[in-house]
Amino acid sequence: MSEEIKEYSNGEITVVWQQHKCTHSKNCWKGLRNVFDPFRRPWINMEGDTTEKIKAQVDKCPSGALSYYSQK
Predict the structure, then answer these.
(1) CA 34 → CA 20, 40, 72, distances in Å?
(2) How confident is the model over 32-43, as pLDDT tens digits?
(3) Could you give the CA distance from residue 7 to residue 61 in angstroms, rounded to a whole number?
(4) Which of 3, 28, 43, 63 has the fewest CB atoms within 10 Å of its CB?
């Protein structure tokens, strides 16, 4: 299995998505809709909300597949 890692930035933070850790995606479709959208490509939507709200949603990721780091 490939350990694909993708990064998405909005200029303030970069969200890291580790696809191989993504085991709760159905929860994310419902609970992290402003960040994780399985119907879009890319799946991570950095324009879906404010940076603080994106951080709060990423922190809810139950599998650790989503994380972020600051650009500043």
Answers:
(1) 21, 12, 23
(2) 677 777 677 667
(3) 16
(4) 3
| Long-range CB pairs of 35-41, under 8 A, 24+ apart, other chains included | 35/66, 36/66
Q: DSSP letter at 7?
A: E
In order of their start, the domains of the chain are 5-70 (3.30.70)
The separation between CA 15 and the C-alpha centre of its own chain, rounded to angstroms, equals 6
Strand partners, 40: none
In the numeric block, which tokens belong to residue 42? 């890319």
Q: Are 34 and 47 in contact (CB under 8 A)?
A: no
Task: Map residue 17 onto helix, strand or coil.
Answer: strand
3-class secondary structure, 4: coil
Q: Give the residue from 34, 39, 40, 42 showing the smallest Cα distance to 16.
A: 42
